[in-house]
Amino acid sequence: MQIESGNNQDKDRILILADFSEGNWEAIQFAMEYLWKANSEICIVQTWQKPNFGVSMVRDLSSILQNISENELESLKRKILKVYALSDSQIRLFSFEGDLPGFFKSEMYLDNNWHVVMASNENQLSDNPRIIEIVDKVGQPLYLLSGLKGLSDFLDVFVLSDTNNPSNSILTSLERIAVGNKISFRVCLNSSEQSRLTIEKSKKKYSDACRDSRLIFLEAANGAGKKEFNDFATEKGQRIMIFDQNKHRKFSGAFKLCMDSWFIRSKGISIGNY
Q1: Which one, of 4, 8, 26, 5, lies nearest residue 17 by Cα?
Q2: I want to staple 148 with a disulfide (CB 3.0 to 4.6 A). Which of 26, 41, 199, 259 is the partner?
Q3: Which sign, positive or negative, has the C-alpha torsion 91, 97, 103, 107?
Q4: The overall pTM is greater than 0.85
């Protein structure tokens, strides 16, 4: 299904990354509870890839894989329409040939403004190279849910604000999350490229958005927030990690360093100098 391009500012578009199928419904619930507005449109993407071996295998399996992807999407759509009072036209399904990093380079993605949501039952998200790559590639507001079983039990939220100024979309979603919930917010600010005055202004905006919540500010000296993210992501429990839009975020390098160290320790080899 196609979507109009051209940075349509009249609609709030929510993008669910359905590749993490074990958490799809939690991602949808979160989006409907904290991101949905009257003019919103919910979009769900599921990727599939052709086998890279055997001409006959590619011919025979490609249509099967595409059908599986499309059927999974249709199943999610039916469930949404059953639970929420939405019209059929408010839900769009994308079966994308390729991987998620490839989707993030597509015109369909780049020509629109999104709130991107994905959920996983994994507790050690910082160790997953696929998720780290997605954090790097998204470039728009990203909501990463870890281990959620419904929305009633999460208590901790991490926000990486490695931009010069927090976006209004992030502040609005934080305000909706904070209302009626006893949430502890950890907000990691980029302190390496900002003046003290700019940092204090950012803190004031977050404090106003998260009234009556426990708010802890962290300052990432290197401006990246990798360590702070890893510390939070490795803790146990149901967690939400929010990343402000940043097209220049680079977590992958830090992951390669960890992999390099692991290979050296476990097998005595190196995968390169990073």
Answers
A1: 26
A2: 26
A3: negative
A4: no
- Residue 10 DSSP one-character state: T
Rounded to 5°, the CA angle 218-101-186 comes to 15
Per the CB < 8 A criterion, the answer to whether 113 and 7 are in contact is: yes
> Would you say 144 and 125 are in contact if contact means Cβ atoms under 8 Å apart?
yes
Q: 3-class DSSP state for residue 44? A: strand
What's the token pair of residue 161?
A: 């604000």
Q: How far is CA 149 from the centre of its chain?
A: 17
Contact call for residues 40 and 11 (beta carbons, < 8 A): yes
pLDDT tens digit sequence for 262-272? 333 444 443 34
Q: Mark residue 18 as left, alpha or beta (left: phi above 0; alpha: psi -120 to 50; beta: remaining).
A: alpha
E strands, the chain, in order: 13-17, 41-48, 91-97, 114-120, 142-146, 156-161, 184-190, 214-220, 239-243
CA 273 to chain centre: 29
The whole-angstrom separation of Cα 64 and Cα 48 is 10
Lowest-pLDDT choice from 146-150, 174-178, 252-256: 252-256
Q: Which long-range contacts (C-beta less than 8 Å, at least 24 apart) are formed by 91-94?
A: 91/41, 91/42, 91/43, 91/44, 92/1, 92/3, 92/41, 92/42, 92/43, 92/44, 93/1, 93/43, 93/44, 93/46, 94/1, 94/3, 94/43, 94/44, 94/45, 94/46
Contact indicator for 37, 12 with CB cutoff of 8 Å? yes
Structure confidence by residue, pLDDT tens digits, 116-160: 999 887 666 666 777 888 888 898 999 998 877 766 666 789 999
Contact 88, 81 (CB under 8 A): yes
CA distances from 156 to 65, 142, 236, 238 (A): 37, 16, 10, 8
Q: Which residues pair with 48 in a beta bridge?
A: 97
